[in-house]
Design brief:
The complex is a heterodimer of chains A (about 300) and B (about 425).
Chain A (H helix, E strand, L loop, with lengths): L10 E4 L4 H13 L3 E5 L7 E2 L2 E4 L2 H7 L4 E4 L3 H13 L4 E4 L6 H14 L2 E3 L6 E3 L4 E3 L13 E8 L2 H13 L4 E6 L10 H9 L6 E6 L5 H10 L7 E5 L27 H11 L2 E2 L5 H10 L1
Parallel strand pairs in A: 1-2, 1-5, 2-4, 5-6, 6-7, 10-11, 10-12, 12-13, 13-14
Antiparallel strand pairs in A: 3-4, 8-9, 8-11
Chain B lengths: L1 E3 L1 H10 L7 E4 L5 H8 L3 E5 L12 E4 L2 H12 L2 E2 L2 E2 L3 E5 L3 E12 L4 E7 L6 H7 L4 E5 L8 H9 L5 H20 L2 E12 L4 E3 L3 E4 L8 H4 L15 H11 L6 E6 L5 E6 L1 H13 L6 E6 L4 H13 L5 E6 L7 H14 L9 E4 L5 H10 L3 E3 L5 H26 L1
Parallel strand pairs in B: 15-17, 17-18, 18-19
Antiparallel strand pairs in B: 1-13, 2-7, 3-4, 3-7, 5-6, 8-9, 8-11, 9-10, 11-12, 11-13, 14-16
Helix pairs in contact in B: 2-3, 5-6, 8-10, 9-13, 10-11, 11-12
The chains are: A alpha/beta (about 300), B alpha+beta (about 425).
Amino acid sequence: MAILLDRNSKIVIQGITGREASMVTRHTLDYGTPIVAGVTPGKGGSDVHGVPVYDTVKAACAEHEINTAVVYVPPAFVYDAVLEAIGSGIKFIFIATENVPQLDAVKFLALARREGVRIVGPNSVGIISPGERMKVGAIGGDNVERCFVPGHVGVISRSGGMTAETSWMVKKAGFGVSTSISIGGDPLIGSTPVDLLELFENDPDTHAVVTFSEPGTRFEEDMAEFVARGGFTKPLISFVAGRFTETLPEGTVFGHAGAMISGGTGKPSQKMKKLREAGAYVAEQFDDIITLLQQVLG
Amino acid sequence: MARLLEDLSKNLFKQSGIPVPQNIVITGAGEAEEAFARLNGAVVLKALVPVGKRGKAGAIKFARSAAEAREMAEQLFGMTVGFYRVEQVLMEEMLDIKEEYYLSITIDKANKTPVIIASTKGGMDVEEVNREHPELVGKLWVDPLLGLCDYQARELWSELGVTGRLLQKLGSVTSKLYRIFEGNDAYLLEINPLVLTLDDQVVAADAVMSVDDSALFRHPQLLAKVQMGTERAWRPLTELEKEAVAVNEADPYRGTARYTEMDGGDIGFMCGGGGGSLLLFDALRSQGGEPANYSEFGGNPPEDKVYGLTKVILSKPGVKGLFVAQNITNNTQVDVVARGVIRAVKDLNIDPAVFPIVVREAGVNEAEARELFSEAGIEYYGDEITLTEAARKMVEKMATAYRQEIASGKEGR
């Protein structure tokens, strides 16, 4: 078991013929994750590394059972691609694309909520469940095992790159991951850390969760409240990067677009304090994740 | 997020049917008297700079005669507001104010929908009004799929006690502002104050507008007007920052290279990944190191981009070491990073035997990177050490190198 992705996931990749999507398709297949179909308007009838390509999601769904859409189209087309997937009844959509216009995101996220569709991203590097050998997105590349080995620790990261490094720290501590998720670096994303903690709480295969956070947003404050009211009862180990930004003038953006501090909310030190008060294990140094994991799972 | 200056925002408002005061932009105090004559009456002079709270900074002046207008303009052109030197001044007719209101539209990140905030108490900090008189502040969350209906805009003001012709006027301005918000992919629109004049006109006395830079591709008319690059700094870009922007823009679609200068510091910070850079900066500082800049590179940058960024980083006066580090990646070719870094180091005649450099890069083509760095005499690590350990090694190497320098200096005397 894992969350979001398992052997029952039937994946379609929208924009599969693009340069990056095509490379990701090859790495994903090599890893052992089946991809049932791809979609690129006008390229129907061709194939990408053996995956059949259709002109529309509807046409792909007519030929295959599909329950997971992976969006790799350019920013200007993401809105349409997400609506197309929702229109075909797909209930889980992963969006890799970066720089999606905010108003587009606001609109498709509103529609997804209305239709009961789960979204991860935009601007996510991927999701991986190593025990199931399932992944979507560039996560792990062609050297997946370096960072991602099967185990019982969930990883939630606001930074794409740090999803790998954090999972590697789990491995270094002597454990592995159930599912690692890069939630996307934008301020407006589908699944928030609290949404994912809820899934991890209900996953018997996950025994603890490690989170990597950045300044800005209310994600960590919300996590702290969720933990405090008993929504997540497993050990939670959290690291918040970017404490130095608190000493800079307000409004400066570092890291991802989501990492903007305004009006006192979103400060790393506040996030750490709230998480600690809620009962989470807060790592002062990133290396402390190793000892904390050994302490709570050892 | 990219900001528009007030005159440009007001032009957009005017085109969309929201009344604004008559105005003229002047570029020197010498133009003040003539502009005053054209505006017939008392005027307001505002420094055109992309910063908020100009009133508090003394960057808004009033004048009732041509001579006074010139005097005030002279004061403004000599000012620096929030690190920005005043190069343009907006002169506009002074309104006869009966009432001041507040109106803004932005995206509520927590609810993931646009939110309109209105208040019958304008002209001051809306957060303060909200704290002290929450009953005077109305909020309306807009269904992004439906857009704003006119009746909702009227409801918002009606619930604040507005009635009659004024209710229609404020409702109409609100609907028009929402159309500007949608039509330009705005990130923030704010009118404070929205003025009711003595002759019962509703006029936008101020206009704050910033747009979503991710959506600029569909607004070519805005491209030339926005202040790009201002979102990453609290002051105008420095010369080295401009150089770094040029390095990035020379090959905009392959990898990224961002650079922000810090006050002081002696460690050149050449780090990658949004989250990784934040972590590494903290890690250096918590162990006693002081980075001279912040940077982010990633997404497999070509050699020239790595070279250019490294050179910028090493060119800042006072930089006495170089820290090259990144989280483990699966798309960055570390051999390319190695070539770029080594070329910059050689170009600047830096000797790694005395100038502390620590590299922690784990990604594609690591073996080759290891060889290149080792040939160049640069201390290199892949994933045999953690990010925290890499930062520690950097700080220790700085301490060792410069303690020795002081020691050998003493011996020489």
